[in-house]
Amino acid sequence: MKLGVLAAHAAHLPAELVQNPVSLGEGNTPLIKLTKLADANRVELEIWCKVEGANPTGSFKDRGMAVAVAAAKHNGSNTVVCASTGNTSASAAAYAATAGLVCVVLLPAGKVARGKLAQARIHGAKTYAIDGNFDDAMEIVKQFDDSMCAVVNSINPMRIQGQKTVAFEVIDQLGGAPDIHALPIGNAGNITAHWIGYCEAAGQQTAACGLCDQNCKFPVVTVSASRPRLLGVQASGAAPFIHGKPIANPETVATAIRIGNPQSWQFAQTALAESGGTVVAVSDAQLLAAQSQLASLEGIFCEPASAASVAGLIIQAQAGKIAPGSKVVCTLTGNGLKDPDAISGTEEIPVIAADHEQIRKLIA
Ligand code: F0G
Question: How far apart are the C-alpha atoms of 184 and 60, rounded to whole Å?
Fold first, then answer.
């Protein structure tokens, strides 16, 4: 049996939820070294990726959703609701199904990858496409009264609590914290969660804890004295952190991070500042190139938003902003299978005769 996050990290999560867990076996995802990708880009770094697409619904959201849905159930809610660019809705729908709760999802019409939409539907979520973007959907969801509907976006502190467990695993798998941890920023919950996890593991205080009083109740277990610098990566068409203010019409091929008004803005800024980290923007072409390299050189198929972490790292390294020899972890947040339409050329494979000899000639 594969332990979920509530069982695997019981000492760091609320006891009442550990006793009444919800789980699909999330967490404990692979950490893989990217040797060929580093060589191909001529960067002298030790690059690792944390493959969060290996979670049950194919994204990191499952860590947070296991805890948030367990809390909703424990608090007597019979419905969970979220706004989503796709992955949160897929995860909420699956965890609500296993917990026996109703799930309501609000999606930006026409801007959600097909696989994610299929997940929300097959798991039985009440799925609504709104005439607006993710930020508009988020404003609607924030008006729900928690006693009726538990909001399971990352403004729910339980989501952050679940997602912080990724840092504990990285420290375990790597034998300590990396020098740098790179990840994409969308609504900014995950970068906040990473930082809280690293701080908790290192026995250090963080003002990002302000997100959830609960954090401070947990015993601090010092597994590593160090904390990484955070490298947040945004798509250049959806980069409010680079502009220093929310933007009205975010646009990027990486629909998962097509967000102009991140809800955890302040906590993410705190995390970045405390870690001595920074934010960079990457173009759609750069993140798609990184996605392609991960797939063709390393055998790892992640979605476009996830590849932004690697693209951002390479840009920083090639600009001489990262010391050679640094140990870096990139979080690959979601599985590439969710978004087949982002891959060019898949729709137009020419048909040839079913003939062995002809194929032999073609591949020679
Ligand atoms: N990568 C992927 C694949 C995502 O789905 C998201 C967010 C992010 C990165 C950014 O994480 O929001 O914590 O900064 N997806 C949300 C959703 C918004 O609705 O699925 P974040």
Answer: 12
Residue 143 Cα to ligand 1 middle (Å): 21
* CB of 154 closer than 6 angstroms to any ligand 1 atom: yes
d(CA 166, CA 292): 25
Whether 127 lines ligand 1, by a CB cut-off of 6 Å, is: no
Q: Which residue among 62, 333, 335 has the greatest number of ligand 1 atoms within 8 angstroms of its CB, and so is best to mutate?
A: 333
Q: Rg (Cα) of the chain, in Å, rounded?
A: 20
- Residues 58-78 have pLDDT tens digits of 999 999 999 999 999 999 999
Q: What is the overall mean pLDDT for the chain?
A: 94
Output the CA 257–ligand 1 centroid distance in Å. 6
CA distances from 340 to 282, 303, 346 (A): 21, 9, 8
CA distance linking residue 263 with residue 156, whole number of Å: 11
Instruction: Select from 52, 55, 59, 140 the residue to mutate for testing ligand 1; criterion: most ligand atoms less than 8 Å from CB.
Output: 59
Q: How far is CA 120 from the centre of its chain?
A: 17
Whole-prediction pTM: 0.96
pLDDT attached to residue 218: 52
317 Cβ below 6 A of ligand 1: no
